[in-house]
Design goal:
Helix content: 40-55%
Shape: flat
CATH class: Alpha Beta
CATH topology: Rossmann fold
Oligomer: single chain
CATH architecture: 3-Layer(aba) Sandwich
Number of domains: 1
Radius of gyration: 18 Å
Structural class: alpha/beta
Length: 121
């Protein structure tokens, strides 16, 4: 079976920005309500990992999400280049330091995957 890249458009001409923003806002409000319940119950946690190239919108998505959540139960961590201390441990050591506690939502901007991929490429 042959696959033609031209059969898969990268731009939808019928895309409606207002409708998309409205749908996104409804979804984010629902996530905010669920996050508030999760915080109150203190039984579960959520980890959101946003992986993308520079300027792909990770920060914008994070701001939009946090806007509708209870700030007490949401934390954001942005992975930067590992420090010498972090390199001295296994690649998951620094991740374990910032995973969410029960009742919390943690947003990782980028992830530990880059610790594996970037040095090896």
């Amino acid at each position: 079976m042959k696959i033609k890249i031209t059969d898969y458009p990268t731009f939808n001409k019928e895309w409606d920005r207002e409708k998309t923003e409205e749908k996104s806002k409804k979804i984010l409000k629902k996530i905010g309500k669920l996050q508030n319940k999760m915080l109150a119950q203190n039984k579960f946690s959520v980890l959101v990992v946003l992986q993308g190239t520079d300027a792909s919108g990770k920060d914008g998505v994070t701001k939009g999400l946090v806007k509708f959540c209870n700030p007490i139960g949401v934390k954001v961590y942005s992975f930067k280049k590992p420090t010498e201390n972090e390199y001295a441990h296994d690649f998951l050591w620094r991740v374990h330091q910032v995973v969410p506690r029960k009742g919390e939502m943690q947003v990782f901007i980028r992830s530990h995957y880059e610790d594996i991929l970037v040095p090896s490429v």
